[in-house]
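Please, structure for the following, as tokens.
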Amino acid sequence: MSFDQISTIAASGMAAQRLRVQLIAANVANSETTRTPEGGPFRRKDAVFQVASLGKTADGMALTGVRISEVIASKEPFITKYEPNHPDADAEGIVQYPNVNPVEEMVNLTEATRAFDANVAVIRAVRAMTLSAQELLRVQ
């Protein structure tokens, strides 16, 4: 496997984790949104990862990475609170809030950030190996 192919695999992971971080940020930003254009409170969104074909290696082996196949809205029930003076309260004074758990989102953010950083480390290692190989060729 070439250095370029390794970098391509790591880049696919970085792109997937970047989108995941964007979804997490949207979830946190909308954690108090009780009214959306679609109607009702905001629904938590999550990314579904899938193996992605990135071509073939020189010896014909499949080169795979990762991609986001779809973004799904959570089916978990909304959080309900009794707030009779809220503009979005129903007849009983109940307001439905998004099904976003800030603690869970922060854990997901930490995981996504670490996965992104791991892919960055792979690219840095490939770069260092490439520079070392070039240096060895220069010496001879």
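The first helix runs from residue 3 to 29. The chain has two helices and four strands.
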